[in-house]
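Per reviewer request, we include the raw input and output of the structure prediction for the construct analysed in the revised manuscript.
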Amino acid sequence: MQQILFYLSIHDIGCRIVCTLIKLLLRIHTVLGDWAWEDEEIGRWKRGGRGGRGGSKNS
């Protein structure tokens, strides 16, 4: 019986660690995505704003 409880507690801790890691990775990914998107926008404005690649927003 104690072995089952011990396993369940380890399993619970493992799930919490995995969930925390996934949340951290998602947060890092969104932050890096925002930075990359901002860099792309700044580059587009420096090249003269309109046009660029696609230019869907400024059409």
